[in-house]
Give the backbone structure.
Amino acid sequence: MTVAPEYFEGFGGARLALHRLGAGRPVLLLHGLFSSAEVNWIKFGTAAKLAEAGFECLMPDLRVHGQSAAPHDPAAYPEDVLVRDLEALVAHLGLIDFDLVGFSLGSRTSARAVIAGMKPQRLVLSGMGLQGLAGWARRQDFFVDVIDRFGTIKRDDPAYFAQQFLKTMGTDREAARLLLGTMADTDPAQLAAITMPCLVLCGDQDNDNGSAQQLAEALPDARLALIPGTHMSSVTMPQLGDELVRFLTP
């Protein structure tokens, strides 16, 4: 299934793509690094499952991803620019009562947005552990290294699969490098601001962003759910949509 995008203006007037599917209660879904709404939510049926359950899936392509703009001007990349883009989308849609779901980079963006004052009714942080928020600098260095060594990383290197995904997605590496520099670590004490019911959802073989259990324990009102898979494969699993429907359905 392909969902044709519409467009909205993000920070600095960037032209950002938005994919919609379904009708009903609005749920924003933010994809992971180097991915897209199509790959993360649409391709493997997660969005369709939510739509069938009575939700309107609102799925932006984050800047530098999918069909959204990938500017090369450093001024287009202030700290937390993805949070600013998300705030612009919520304002564009006039959303007040909505739920927010992120995967990996999308989870990081969602948590930072809530800490900055966004108020979804329910929050899902998937593909994310405590260290992916509090120790982001280490992950950032890993991805910057992948970009800098792109095309030379051999199969036996831990960075190989990230290189291949970057290649498959056709990501603009110059823009991606600028985007990586916008992301600061999150002090675990700030997680106290995330007071709405939260689901920490993770593949049972996914430790890419640290401990999902520790993240759930650090949040005021969270529970942990595990589904089959690694960081890369968990988004392909039908259980991802099942757990989202279960948690988000009133």
Strands lie at 6-9, 15-21, 25-30, 55-60, 99-103, 123-126, 198-203, 222-227. Residues 81-93 form the longest helix (13 residues). The chain has a mean pLDDT of 96.
